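User: Batch of two.

Assistant: Item 1 of 2:
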Amino acid sequence: MTNNLEKSASGWTVGEIHARLGISTAIYQRLRLSAQHIAKIRQAGISRIELLLKPDSFDYRNLFQAKEVLEECQKQGVKIVSVHAFLGLPYRFKNEAERKLVITKSLSMLRFAEESSVPNYVAHFGCGEHTKVIVPELLNRTDGYSIKLTTENMGALPPYVAIVEEIGSDRFGLTVDIGHPKDKDGANPLVMKEKARQTLAQCGNRLSHLHLHETFNLAQKRDHRPPLHKDGIIQWGEVFAALKDVDYKGELLFEDGRGENPEEWVRMTGEFPQEFVRRYGNNESL
């Protein structure tokens, strides 16, 4: 019989999770991101990061800071698997000036990401008519780039799956944040054992990237907490079973939305592979 510390009921091994384990630098969003933060992430056994492009934390236009962080990633063997675009852009633009602003700023961030050999770009492009304007233009104007653009869900998943299918580009996909889906009653289906697996599996091959984290009491709207917290209610076994269902090949990346306790986040993310398999390492059917 396979040791529980080696393989989970959903088919994930400690080694497989560890090899794809990542964390967003959003954990340091209240600080100026530096080489020492990258070193701390690597010391915790995490080898992948998402760079949050937040000017007061990491300003990609600051050549000195960008050089410091990128060189430390190379030194530590940390791969930058994604960048998260600046959150303050008017993606739901109301006029031509706002549309041009989104395009101009997005192209600048995409250029930085492409030149840094980053494979994924995460933005709050949405899933509406404005998305059909912004995304195709960015795809056209970055023709020849290898980076993949993704839209992060800020609600129920079906409209986001639909917009990815409608735009129909192999350079456009979906980033699923597991704290954001909501049913019609306002509840997150990923905290319900009977719904979680089916909900995530509906993304199929449109799923390009993940933002993982814990959530607590939904009435308090508290999400983006460290994984496998003792009071957390995300159905992790079902979530990871769904990732197997859709043959997800991307990173298992954890994202903090508040930056309140980066040390705890780094520690608990680093411990996730062993803790997940310890919790779900049995022969029960999911």
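Item 2 of 2:
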Amino acid sequence: MTDPAAAVVDWEGNSVEHWRREWRVPELVILSETTSTNDALRSLADAGAPAGAIVIAESQTAGRGQAGRTWTSPPGKSLLFSILLRNDNGPDGAPDPSTTPIRVGLALCTAITRVSGLDVRIKWPNDIVHEGKKLAGILCEGASGAAGAFVVAGIGVNIHQAEDDWPSGLRAPATSLLLATGRNVSRAALAGGIVKRLRPFRLEGELAPSVLTDFRDHDALFGRRITLDDGSSVTACGIDAHGALLVQSGVGIRTIRAGSVRLSPLHHSSTGPS
């Protein structure tokens, strides 16, 4: 549950209420610290919070990414943000959980580019990269309750980190908006851009052709040799309408529905790590 004692009144130069009105969201909670913004928002969702409710935190004690990996961030240097997605005005049928991270990722790419000017891409399944280095991550967690099906979409964006803000093992594959642009990018401006693009979000099933085209334009892996969790080396060929990764192997096109991928060594030497 959210800890009332951790709630802040002012953030990024204005009151929390100012940002709630500015972003036109029904509920906004900003915390000095929490286990994770997804955990905090999940408790609000279980209590009936409406679509568009948001939790932001300055620090997470148990931030996580894909497959339970730890999300590391010094306090105040990232945008740690979760938004509640549900179909309050439509059917409560369970959405296809694999498509939501793709659509949230595209919204995040657009928002980052608008505030920073950077060319950013999606590295399937849920990383946002710039020049091969991880800039942001997405963790979408779905559930259903008395108020219907919902997804808590968690977003972590590296904003103000310098090289020495990460443990030595993370410095090579990670970057921040500060490192990539040489300037401090407003967390509030980025948060507002994300909200603008996710406010009309609806939980849906298959990805529309226009979304698949948009993904192709932001695909960090297309046409590149990658290594799967089982150690096999294949060529990435995009995604299907359910958000699964398509790869070309010696036996034809394979569909990868879960797991992680990494660029094969040949691509690491030419493009940098991801």
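Confidence is low (pLDDT under 50) at residues 267-274.
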